[in-house]
Structures are given as C-alpha cells and as structure tokens.
C-alpha cells in the first residue's frame, strides 16, 4: 500500500503541475490573488467541520468510557493532517488518532473500535454525499454519460463499504491476527489473539448503539454539507460567484471523487481535474476552476500543517516520558 501511495503521489503531482502549466501559472495566479488577503477567510469557513467530525468520533466510544471532547478534537485534527499531507492511503491518520488518544488515557479497545466504526461512517456519508452530487449533476447538466460515470464511482465505493462491514462482522482483528499466527507460528501474534477478539467485540457493541451511531452519521453528514461554504466563498472572493446549490454540486462530487482516489495522497491532480470538468457546467473557464481549487487548498497550510506539528509534539512528549520512566527505573 505504501508503494501504491508513493506512485499515486508522484502521478497526482505530475497531473497537478501539468494542469497548471496547461493553463499558465501567471493566469492562474492572477485569478487567485484578486481576493488578496481575503482568501485566508476560506479555511475559516471550513474550520467548524473539524469540530463536527470530532463530535462524530466521540459518539462512537462506549457511553460509559467516552473521552473528553478536547483530546478527541486534537487527536482527530492530527489524524486528518496525516491523511491529508502524507502518503498513507487515508489509513495512517486513523492509526495516528487512535494512538494519540490512547496515549492520553483512552481505553485501547474502545479507541480501536471507535476508529474502525468512524472510518466506516466516513465512507457511508461519502456515498450519501456523492448521491446528492449525482442527483444535482443530472439536474444541472442533463449529461447521461457524466451521471453514469459518477454513479459507477459511487457504486464502487458502496461495494467497498459493504465488504468492509462484512469483514467487521466476521471479526476483522481476530481474523487478521489468527491468520498471521498460523502462518508465522510466532508467539507474538499468538499473544495478541485475545486482545484482537476483544476489539472485535467492542466494534459489534458500537454498532448496537443505534442512537449514537445515527447521531454520528448526522454529525459527519452535516460537516460535509458545511464544507460547501469553502467553494462558494472562494468563487465569490475571486469574482466568479455561483449559487449555493451549484457550490453543493461541485463540492459533493469533487470530494467524492477525491475520496475514491484514496491512493493519491491529498487527491493531488484529482481534485483539480474534477474542478476543471465540473466547473465548466457552472460557467468557469479552466484557469478559474484551477484557481478556485488551489484557494480551497489553502486550508492545508493554515489547518493541516499545524496539525502535523501538533502530532510531532505529542509523539515527542510521549517519547520523552518513556525515556524518563526508563531512567527512573534504572536508578531505583
């Protein structure tokens, strides 16, 4: 998977650079900087979704052992930054956020189960979000070929999440660890079988909490809808305003296509290509669509880079504490 992510990163960056070169760096920059400093307002419109996604994840912990909101928020922020900026195929960030919240005192089994179910919720809401986009695509464009292509993408995502749910029901952690134990005969995996089964049991318990699960889906879906604001505001600030419905149409399909291309880190090139194609339906020329896509990416600098720094700080403190504890143990 790491090799695929690296290949995806290179391919995506080449595509992105090619699109910018095709339209001209100067032309795109001219469109982008018409808004001056006001383009920094675009990430602020997106920021509330970080809080909403954290609330979604928090709801998926056991009701009697739910961590406080702020540790959940910071861990979610770090995980998102890792998934966005590093070639980890949208999985590494989930591991990071679970690890961080465990370092801060959350129960290991609860954190692991909540993270797996949260990832499932992410994909389910992405499919619902994509269906909204396809419906608007059919209404706005009347292009059967485009609608069919988008529908196939969403159906593929649906098949993927169905398979993921089947694996979870079968006991994904116990299955993986027991298989590794049979193949390697290692005591390391043998000792993990019981713990893996406990995590699977927590996952099943989480799905039984129907009310909390429905609330988590609602929070995640509301966050996706709110992200429409960044496209609407970017277009408005650059002087190419569109309606809220048109912004919803573009955001839903570009984000769904970006999520489907998970092997391309941060959907480099994928997002830009989608903006160029879909932007044509709302009257944007390719250079304008690229400029708006790049303005939307400003949040990666304003929000995601600080998230990476925060993650390194958390890991550094944890490492320091472990070394200090080891020194104290040796001195006794």
Describe the protein's architecture and organization.
The protein is mainly alpha-helical and 332 residues long. It has one domain (2-15, 36-317). Helix content is 82%, strand content 0%. The protein contains 16 helices and no strands. The chain is globular. The model has no long low-confidence stretch (mean pLDDT 86).
Note the topology:
Elements: H1 2-23, H2 25-32, H3 41-46, H4 48-59, H5 69-85, H6 92-103, H7 108-141, H8 144-170, H9 172-184, H10 187-208, H11 210-226, H12 228-237, H13 244-260, H14 270-279, H15 286-296, H16 298-331
Beta-strand residue percentage: under 5%
The helix fraction, in percent, is over 70%
Number of strands: 0
The end-to-end distance, rounded to whole angstroms, is 45 Å
The helix count comes to 16
Structural class, by secondary structure, is mainly alpha
Most strands sheet: none
Shape: globular
Order of helices and strands: HHHHHHHHHHHHHHHH
Low-confidence stretches: none
Number of individual domains:
1
Radius of gyration: 21 Å
- Mean pLDDT across all amino acids: 86
Work out the oligomeric state of the chains in this entry: single chain
């Amino acid at each position: 998977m790491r090799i695929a992510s690296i290949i995806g990163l290179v391919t995506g960056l080449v595509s992105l650079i090619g699109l910018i070169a095709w339209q001209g760096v100067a032309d795109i920059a001219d469109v982008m900087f018409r808004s001056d400093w006001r383009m920094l307002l675009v990430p602020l419109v997106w920021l509330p979704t970080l809080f909403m996604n954290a609330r979604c994840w928090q709801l998926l912990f056991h009701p009697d052992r739910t961590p406080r909101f702020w540790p959940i928020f910071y861990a979610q922020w770090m995980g998102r930054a890792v998934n966005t900026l590093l070639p980890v195929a949208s999985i590494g960030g989930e591991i990071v956020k679970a690890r961080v919240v465990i370092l801060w005192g959350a129960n290991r089994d609860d954190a692991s189960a909540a993270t797996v179910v949260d990832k499932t919720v992410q994909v389910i809401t992405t499919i619902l979000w994509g269906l909204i986009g396809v419906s608007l695509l059919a209404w706005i464009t009347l292009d059967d070929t485009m609608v069919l292509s988008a529908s196939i993408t969403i159906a593929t995502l649906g098949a993927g999440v169905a398979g993921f749910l089947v694996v979870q029901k079968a006991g994904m952690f116990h299955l993986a660890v027991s298989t590794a134990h049979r193949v390697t005969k290692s005591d390391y995996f043998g000792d993990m079988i019981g713990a893996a089964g406990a995590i699977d049991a927590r996952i099943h318990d989480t799905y039984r909490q129907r009310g909390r699960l429905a609330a988590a889906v609602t929070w995640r879906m509301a966050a996706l809808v709110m992200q429409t604001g960044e496209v609407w505001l970017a277009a408005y600030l650059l002087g190419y305003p569109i309606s809220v419905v048109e912004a919803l149409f573009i955001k839903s399909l570009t984000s769904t296509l970006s999520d489907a291309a998970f092997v391309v880190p941060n959907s480099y090139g994928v997002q830009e290509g989608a903006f160029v194609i879909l932007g044509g339906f709302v009257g944007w020329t390719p250079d304008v669509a690229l400029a708006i896509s790049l303005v939307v990416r400003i949040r990666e600098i304003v929000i995601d880079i600080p998230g990476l720094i925060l993650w390194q700080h958390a890991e550094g403190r944890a490492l320091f504490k472990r070394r200090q504890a080891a020194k104290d143990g040796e001195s006794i």
